[in-house]
Amino acid sequence: MRQLVVKVTAGSDDPERCAQGFTVAATAVASGAQVSLWLTGEAAWFALPGRAAEFTLAHAAELSDLLQSVLISGTVTLCSQCAQRREIAPSDVIDGIRVAGAASFVEEILAPGAQALVY
């Protein structure tokens, strides 16, 4: 199975780049790829309940719908350092989102056949 690791570093501070990352991840899930979506930097806030629903960008799919599709068929990870910097505890995040660090990210992107994209 094809594996795609998508790292989203932007949030509401750069809405187009943020939406692009979520859209690519959800589209890859829909096409049958094994997808791992990483929420880092300002995208870390979208690991919290309700935050993705607050995001708006004209002519873009709802971020909460994109996130939900990846949660159902892929994996979503919140960067542990990004979470700590924002005082987000593992118990604060949406059910199904894991918290992990750089070692897990490197393991995923170095897996045979994996491709990584950063937004």
From TrEMBL:
SUPFAM superfamilies: DsrEFH-like (SSF75169). Pfam families: DsrE. This is Unannotated protein. InterPro entries: DsrEFH-like, Sulphur_relay_DsrE/F-like. It comes from freshwater metagenome.
